[in-house]
Amino acid sequence: MAAASNRIRRARPLLGTFVEIEAAGPAQAEVVGAIDAAFDAVSGVHRLMSFHEPDSDVSRLNRQAFDRPVKVHQWTFDVLKTSIELHRESDGLFNIAVAPILQGMGLLPRHDEDEAEAIAREAIELLEGRMIRFRHRGTKIDLGGIAKGFAVDRALDALRHSGAVTCGLVNAGGDLGAFGAEVQTAHIRHPRHPGRVVCRIEFAGEALASSARRLDPFQSAQSDGSAIVRPDGKPLTNAIDGVTVRAPSCMIADALTKIVMISGADAGSLLELYQASALLITSDSEVRISPDLQSVVHLAA
After folding, report:
1. Contact (Cβ atoms closer than 8 angstroms) between residue 45 and residue 154
2. At what angle do helices 74-89 and 147-162 cross, to 10 degrees?
3. In terms of DSSP H, where are the helices of the chain?
4. Fewest CB atoms within 10 A around its CB: which of 76, 135, 246, 256?
């Protein structure tokens, strides 16, 4: 009798990290085909939303969208729409128009005569027919704070729609999404001490995303600055070293980690709005957990 389920795991370098996809189903060849389709979806998001690819939707918008409306792919339009909504709901803490600040900090490359200035609110206009227009000449967008999570969601869709997979897990550099009844386990590492596991989180049919302060072990044993940039370009001054968010979609989880890293416990109402919950690790190694997440978090001994 044939095996009831074939479990296959594959990994590829995409989105500036390693993307790992695991899936199970009754027919091995069909499971492999579903995983290939999921990787194709991730590659598609990369081609559309990379800041570095000259022909991506993001690059075309940054070059042209002030001079004239630019038509983008439906996926890009959807991410921009959600980004603008998050910008509004977070009072500007989530801001994809932060690219000039990132360029000024050396975290993104400059192109031609890019202006290193912060862009005010409501810089992006969504028009009919998936057309986008920028209201300010200096506007430059970067979807690095949300596109990876969106790619995980699209990979999961590809697995689901294949009809060949009973459960699946997508891991894009720590942004995780799963579907199916199987309970998955994610191990959360300490932001200052990557070799130390703080806890494990169980989840099923949901998404997890994590963000943390930067740590350069060759320079210092302490975290130095943050991989998260405030919209005004100022460094984070709170005592939050790392955040993990659980949400119904990985796109939302990915974006919310940036907001929670900035606002800490004050993000409670926003988490509730998006049916999300969070785990925070403070600079003194205290672990703070949303009440609705506590039952699935198991602290390390």
Report:
1. yes
2. 130
3. 28-49, 57-64, 74-89, 99-104, 147-162, 250-263, 268-273
4. 135
Phi, psi of 99 (to 5 degrees): -55, -40
pLDDT digits (tens, 9 = 90+) for 145-194: 999 999 999 999 999 999 999 999 999 998 999 999 999 999 999 998 88
Top-tier CATH class for 183-299: alpha beta
Q: Where are the domains of the chain?
A: 57-134, 183-299
- Please name which of 236, 233, 226 lies closest in space to residue 102, comparing C-alpha atoms: 233
Which of 91, 114, 112 shows the shortest CA–CA distance to 102? 114
Model pTM? 0.87
Does the domain made of 57-134 have the CATH classification 3.30.1380? no
Residue 84: Cβ-neighbour burial (10 angstroms; 0-12, 13-18, 19+): buried
| CA gyration radius, the chain | 19
Positive or negative CA dihedral for 193, 199, 204, 207?
negative
